[in-house]
UniProtKB/TrEMBL annotation:
Gene3D superfamilies: P-loop containing nucleotide triphosphate hydrolases. One of its GO terms (molecular function) is GTP binding. The keyword GTP-binding applies. It comes from Dicentrarchus labrax (European seabass). This is Septin 5b. Keywords: GTP-binding, Nucleotide-binding. Pfam families: Septin (PF00735). CDD domains: CDC_Septin. The record marks F150 as: Important for dimerization.
């Protein structure tokens, strides 16, 4: 008995699965949730708008000094659909207005960690259900934490916040408004921050090593990114 394959390709097997999965993923699109945290006035919204060429805070109300002092930490979500070269991305920005603005910032990160834990629980519940076809992944994938440029290192609230999140999400600390510092000041501040991060055992995101079979251009970009994040590098 002879069987004839009606597919255009001569070979059909598990080796073609990566391409099939890739095409399916590209067609479906990807979900990415980015959290931004830091006190008001550090340029969080400006950075996000510049990165994704969109305005996520069109209707934002600016608070006066008295309102900011009494404000509690809120969780605000903004979702935008982005498409680049046929690849769709559903981007969710999680903002944390009120963080670090109060006179007493004791455990001001509690609302943030509770939100992250809730998203993990929702995703686990959906994955454990019977209908897993249209699961929404609202887990926080990365947190950009903005550090003021005017201090002399990490503040207690910075240390406690990053340590509270380090085992839940990829934490990427940023020096906010670094353009107001000279290159030598940026270098010194980066060195001091890296020393304190190591001193307090804070786990921040590290660029992974690229595979040996990656192309040379990707290896070059990976090497350059790692060099830029060194304590002695400037940005």
């Amino acid at each position: 008995i002879k069987y004839v394959c009606l597919l255009e390709k001569d070979y059909v097997g598990f080796a073609t699965l990566p391409n099939q999965v890739h095409r399916k993923s590209v067609k479906k699109g990807f979900d990415f949730t980015l959290m931004v945290a830091g006190e008001s006035g550090l340029g969080k919204s400006t950075l996000v708008n510049s990165l994704f060429l969109t305005d996520l805070h069109k209707d934002r109300k600016l608070l006066n000094a008295e309102e900011r002092i009494s404000q509690t930490v809120e969780i605000m979500k903004h979702t935008v659909d982005i498409e680049e070269k046929g690849v769709k991305l559903k981007l969710t920005i999680v903002d944390t207005p009120g963080f670090g603005d109060a006179v007493n910032n004791t455990e001001c990160w509690r609302a943030v960690t509770d939100y992250i834990d809730q998203q993990f629980e929702h995703y686990f519940r959906d994955e454990s259900g019977l209908n897993r076809k249209n699961i929404q992944d609202n887990r926080v994938h990365c947190c950009l934490y903005f550090i003021p440029p005017f201090g002399h290192g990490l503040r207690p609230v910075d240390i406690e916040f990053m340590k509270a999140l380090q085992d839940k999400v990829n934490v990427v600390p940023l020096i906010a408004k670094a353009d107001c510092l000279t290159p030598s000041e940026i270098k010194k501040l980066k060195e001091r921050l890296r020393e304190e991060i190591d001193k307090y055992g804070i786990k921040i995101y590290q660029f992974p090593d690229c595979d040996s079979d990656e192309d040379e251009e990707f290896k070059r970009q990976d090497k350059e990114l790692k060099w830029r994040t060194r304590p002695t590098a400037t940005s």
